[in-house]
Design a protein that fits this description.
Blueprint (H helix, E strand, L loop, with lengths): L18 E5 L2 E4 L4 E4 L2 H4 L8 H14 L10 H14 L3 E7 L2 H18 L7 E5 L8 H6 L17 E4 L5 H15 L3 E6 L13 H13 L3 E5 L14 H4 L5 E4 L1 H4 L6 E6 H9 L14 H16 L2 H17 L6 E7 L2 E6 L9 H13 L2 E2 L1 E3 L2 E4 L7 H16 L3
Parallel strand pairs: 3-13, 5-6, 5-7, 7-8, 8-9
Antiparallel strand pairs: 1-2, 2-3, 4-10, 9-10, 11-12, 12-15, 14-15
The structure holds pyridoxal-5'-phosphate.
The site of pyridoxal-5'-phosphate has 14 residues, from helix 4.
Amino acid sequence: MDMLMRPYAVPGAPGVITLTHGSGCVVVDDTGREYLDAVSGLWNVTLGLGHEEIIERMTRQLRSMAYGGLFDSGHTQASALAQRLIAACGQDMAHVYLSTTGTSAVEVALHVARLHFVAREQPHKRNVLSFDCGYHGCSLVNLSASRIVHHELSDRSVLSPHFESIPAPSDEAKSLQVLETKLVERGHEFSSLLVEPVPASGGVIVASRAYWAQVNELCRRHDVLVVADEVATGGGRCGAFLASPLVGLQPAIIALSKAVNSGYYPTGATLFTREVVAPIQRAKLPLDFGSTQDGNPVGCAAALAVLDIIEREGLCQRAVQLGGRIVEQLSALEAPVVRAVRGLGLMIAIDLQHRDLSRFSVNEAAEVRAACREEGLLVYHYEGGLNLFPALTMSDEQAELAVAILGDVLATLD
Ligand SMILES: Cc1ncc(COP(=O)(O)O)c(C=O)c1O
């Protein structure tokens, strides 16, 4: 039994591997075995481990000021990061709240969406819509929107009745029809639609631009704020700093975290358009949340370094190139279990099927993931297949090795 309690695991259950160190896209366990990490940690270490420039800039910040809060003061690193994120995101974003995780970035989005309607004297507009395949974090609030983990909840009483779901855009017509019905019948109850531009945990669903255009239009017509959860997709992963403009989603609020800090320091960010924040300013409503480590200067220094590196090294472009090549190579694998391969940049899914064309269950997909790990390759799984979320800095040779290991593992399955 392990004293350490781990996320989404039975207390005391040990982890499958225990890591000691790593460099770039390679991690090493406590037996000295190396693994090629094709999921960049938890999809977040987009610049790889041991990046000297990030470490150096964080160290400099640690020496000059390890902590500076934002409660009744400010600090230059937070202001610089806010400005930098607004420039990187575009999309008419004008305000930034800095927090610590993807969960907090999304929760801040929901807080501010609610305040926006309170400020406009429409407090009844407080319900939130999300996809039935979505994951948006693990606080008690966010769990209500994270439909994909609802079946795992031992006590559903924590779920808020103010959260409702719409079908995933794997069936675009059905998804739009349910969204439209809810908004036509009860648009006055909804504050926001919380969506991943490319649902990641749901299996990398890349919906059409026509779908997102209708989503934008329905939300505009019914005065519902579009919240883009770009925690997994943002920061260059999909081939641009944000996935929203790539797919045609027009958000009023954007949540970021993983790739923005590349795993070096927990940092989240939520961006808002002027239209979202102006009514709150006019009503002189203070934000009714805040946490000690929000906007920690070391986290800001790490994120600023990450943004510099992504831009200087053209890593969004690299995600397009490498992602395209990996999808091409995976599609050419001679393995009948491969039903389909799709991706956007370096967010890639491999749907798996049996001989009778039935999809792999979540447990079967988890077994294939374990088989890859046995062969020294770390991948992720979802209900129906495997995910790759490689670092933007993965080399061509490492990507080829990952595809070769996958090819060997998949060739043994039926
Ligand atoms: C789309 C999305 N939103 C939010 C989160 C939560 O982020 P965190 O685990 O940093 O709290 C995740 C985590 O995987 C995610 O994929």
